[in-house]
Amino acid sequence: MSTNTELPMHLYKANLELLQTTGKLIQESGQQFLSQAAPGDLQAFVSNVGNSQAAFVAGLGAAVQTWQKETTEALGGLAGAAPFGNAMGDFLKQFGK
């Protein structure tokens, strides 16, 4: 068995992608909020805010599902790998002689 040394990089990439997607969604949501037309029209404002929030929540849900899939795939690769503790135990044995 071998130790999965790629796991940290896969998890880092998945977390970075989630962070980037979340930042993009927040930026888009803020832009939509600032571009509201007819500031005196409360009904239109509320409708636009509701639509903006719905788009944000849908995008965030998709981003989290993608993150969950990527992390599950990365962790699934551990099934055939030796636990990190085994590798460290073998490494430390050479100092215990």
From TrEMBL:
Domain of life: Bacteria
Name of the protein in its database record: Phasin protein
